TrEMBL record:
Assembly information from the UniProt record: Monomer.
Positions of the Glutamyl/glutaminyl-tRNA synthetase class Ib catalytic domain: 5-306
Family, similarity comment: Belongs to the class-I aminoacyl-tRNA synthetase family. Glutamate--tRNA ligase type 1 subfamily.
InterPro entries: aa-tRNA-synth_I_cd-bd, aa-tRNA-synth_I_codon-bd_sub2, aa-tRNA-synth_I_CS, aa_tRNA-synth_I_cd-bd_sf, Glu-tRNA-ligase_bac/mito, Glu/Gln-tRNA-synth, Glu/Gln-tRNA-synth_Ib_cat-dom, GluQ/Sye
Name of the protein in its database record: Glutamate--tRNA ligase
Binding site for ATP: K242
Encoding gene (name): gltX
GO CC annotations on file: cytosol
Intracellular or extracellular location(s): Cytoplasm
């Protein structure tokens, strides 16, 4: 029976959910979901000075917005400290670890001497093979016995085999002198206890793998599969930072990017499936594999993000899109859509979502729904409503009032009127947009008429026609 795939995302709650962390979570989610496996969430909150409940909530909110659901309860690393200590003491009993009584001053003296003599400054404790009978009654740390000879090979699914000489590995501290476990121990123990089969994380953790493998080997545990993914860079090829724009996932929600587009873009950021750019969640889960991850850092490109988001908005189910639009309004502190406006948005979503790349762009197109009479045209639209245009609208209105309220009949009535006064329909479109929406960039005038309905359309046209130029 094949082993169930178990992946995990293990952020530190010291701030927002970083866009790089979101991609790591997505890769783990896709890998597990595409194989019928489990995707777990662990909050690495052992740094009590910097970990906050607000940051934990920000991570949970960011993952919820992205639609990255996890299995089981959220694991707190801090709450498992007793189990981490238990493993360190077990390694001590097995002879795979030892008590080290060296003081910080002694360790610094060792390093200073080694540097002066041109030797490795990697600390070699004199207590490694000391007889316990010689142990003083003094504070100590517990260190693991790292191999001194040979090499440790990390069989990485992205980076290939990475070899680290064992003389580059120190006898890592497992328990501090106050009995608290170190991060490296906690991660290895948690990954083993949670049954994690695949550790997919940023390549800034690559060296950590060699040190965590020491614990696995000493405990006789099977190693997980490692896959260390390159970091995300900005368009200039430098590590992604605040100067490149938003770093937190919450900021992307507030900028109005749809979650499906964000997932699609982040999946393509460092991973590929042939030449496919636009794909659904189902396709991503079916296609995602570690072999498709590149070794080079990916570059964040806002234009590509916007392009994909536009495609996802266009392809979205209207009701789902409206629901996410309400979430965007809430996230940005704007009032929710309700009553007649909500109904009109439902009716008009089909013509709003074409060529809108973000929710602010979609709302701009929806201005004809959101505006109230009398419509106040912006400067560009107002230029379309001179005395001649108003006169034409006044003549056109009865033709529309008497037409059947279908696209075909409205188009026919407008075209026939344009012919009767010897103008091209394009000459009517600008004043119609200005009268109906107060904007020059809108959905089709006929779509606006159909969404607004006969009474509201005629009322707006009459308002525009009656105002003096």
């Amino acid at each position: 029976m094949p082993q169930t795939v178990v992946t995990r995302f293990a952020p530190s709650p010291t701030g927002f959910l970083h866009i790089g962390g979101a991609r790591t979570a997505l890769f783990n989610w896709l890998y597990a979901r595409g194989r019928g496996g489990r995707f777990l969430l662990r909050i690495e909150d052992t740094d009590r000075a910097r970990s906050t409940d607000q940051a934990t909530q920000a991570i949970l909110d960011g993952m919820a917005w992205l639609g990255l659901d996890h299995d089981g309860e959220v694991i707190s690393q801090y709450e498992r400290a007793e189990r981490h200590r238990e493993v360190a003491l077990d390694l001590l009993d097995k002879g795979e670890a030892y008590k080290c009584f060296s003081t910080q001053d002694e360790i610094q003296t060792f390093r200073d001497t080694a540097r002066a003599e041109g030797r490795s400054t990697l600390f070699q404790s004199p207590w490694r093979d000391a007889d316990p009978a010689t142990h003083p009654d003094a504070p100590y740390v517990i260190r693991i016995k790292a191999p001194r000879d040979g090499a440790t090979v990390i069989a990485d699914r992205v980076q290939g085999d990475v070899t680290i000489r064992n003389d580059q590995l120190d006898d890592m501290v497992l328990l501090r002198s106050d009995g608290s476990p170190v991060y490296m121990l906690a991660v290895a123990v948690d990954d083993h206890d949670m049954g994690v089969t695949h550790v997919i994380r940023g390549d800034d953790h690559l060296n950590n793998a060699a040190r965590q493998m020491l614990i696995y080997t000493a405990m006789g545990w099977p190693l997980p599969v490692y896959a260390h993914i390159p970091l995300i860079h900005g368009p200039d090829g430098k590590k992604l930072s605040k100067r490149h724009g938003a770093l937190g996932v919450d900021e992307y929600q507030k900028m109005g990017y749809p979650a499906a587009g964000m997932r699609n873009y982040l999946a393509r950021l460092g991973w590929s499936h042939g030449d496919d750019e636009f794909f659904t969640d189902a396709q991503a889960q079916e296609w995602f594999d570690l072999s498709g991850i590149g070794k080079s850092p990916a570059r964040f490109d806002f234009k590509k993000l916007e392009n994909l988001c536009g495609q996802h908005i266009a392809a979205s189910d209207d009701a789902a899109l409206l629901h996410e639009l309400q979430g965007f309004l809430a996230a940005t502190g704007q009032p929710a859509l309700s009553g007649p406006r909500l109904s009109l948005m439902e009716t008009g979503m089909y013509c709003l979502k074409e060529r809108a790349r973000t929710f602010p762009e979609l709302l701009e197109k929806a201005e004809f729904i959101l505006a109230e009479r009398p419509i106040r045209p912006d400067e560009k639209a107002a230029a379309q409503l001179d005395d001649v245009s108003r006169s034409i609208l006044k003549e056109l209105t009865p033709h529309l009032r008497n037409a059947r309220w279908s696209r075909e009949d409205l188009e026919a009535a407008a075209m026939q009127f344009a012919e009767s006064i010897d103008v091209k329909f394009g000459k009517l479109a600008g004043p119609l947009r200005a009268a109906l929406a107060g904007r020059s960039a809108t959905p089709s005038v006929f779509d606006m008429m159909l969404v607004l309905g006969r009474d509201e359309t005629i009322a707006r046209l009459s308002d525009a026609a009656c105002e003096s130029g």
